[in-house]
Amino acid sequence: MTRVPRGYIARRRRTKMHSFASNFRGAHLRLNRMITQQVKRAFVSSHRDRGRQKRDFHRLWITRINAATRVYKVFDSYSKLIHNLYKKKLILNGKMLAQVAVSNPNNL
């Protein structure tokens, strides 16, 4: 039986997966089945951890603002500070408030 030259679609798919796995090591870089498994796993982890990163940074900002409000006796807690800012219609970004709390806490 003669050899049948196959199309380019499967090779193109494997090359694409290989480009995603270019920084992996060992079999995770060389074997096609292992590459697809590890790339899928990496995509799942990155998708999950994007949400987790947002959550962690939000917690960090709240902690920084809360610490600054308690140390400099602005309010008793973070929630009272945010409540009073909301009553005065000063809607501020939590990231910016945390930056002010760390760099220049006297202006909080």
Structural class: mainly alpha
Oligomer: single chain
Q: Using DSSP, what is the number of strands?
A: 0
Shape: rod-shaped
How many domain regions? 1
Main sheet: strands, sense, barrel:
none
Poorly predicted spans: none
Question: What value does the average pLDDT take?
Answer: 91
* Helix amount: over 70%
Can you describe what's shown?
This protein has about 110 residues and is mainly α. The protein has one domain. It has five helices and no strands. The protein has helices at about 10-20, 25-30, 30-70, 80-85, 95-105. The radius of gyration is 25 Å and the shape is rod-shaped. The mean pLDDT is about 90.
Concise summary:
This protein is mainly alpha-helical and 108 residues long. Helix content is 70%, strand content 0%.
